[in-house]
Amino acid sequence: PFCREPTPATSEDSNKQRMKRIEMNDPVAIFLEGGEQFIKGDYSSAFELYTKAAELGELEAHYKLSLMYNLGYGVEKDEGKEMHHLEVA
Predict the structure, then answer these.
(1) Other CB atoms closer than 10 Å to residue 75's CB: what's the count?
(2) Separation CA 86–CA 68 (nearest Å)
């Protein structure tokens, strides 16, 4: 488990660990990467990552998806999908 590994000492090591976690379908790592993409303005990538994290059980990802559907960031506004993700979150 990742929790038993030492904290990465450098940014490069941190990025490697994050990518390893994403490759292993860690929903938290996928969710956090979605947040990074959202901040960069890459809403399409953020949406894909949040969707994958939500499918893997990350409840916060459902909340972020509800916001994206509410605001129309990277997706067409959709009140039904917004409410679905809010209810799951």
Answers:
(1) 17
(2) 11
Residue located via tokens 């956090």: 32
In the block, which residue shows the tokens 């990802």? 61
Question: How many other CB atoms sit within 10 Å of the CB of residue 65?
Answer: 25
pLDDT digits (tens, 9 = 90+) for 6-60: 788 898 988 898 899 999 999 999 999 999 999 999 999 999 999 999 999 999 9
Task: Please state the length of the chain.
Answer: 89
Residue 35 is which amino acid?
Answer: G
What pLDDT is attached to residue 2? 60
Both tokens of 52, joined, read 């994958």
| 64 membership: H or E segment, kind and range | helix 59-71
In whole angstroms, give the CA distance from residue 21 to residue 10: 17
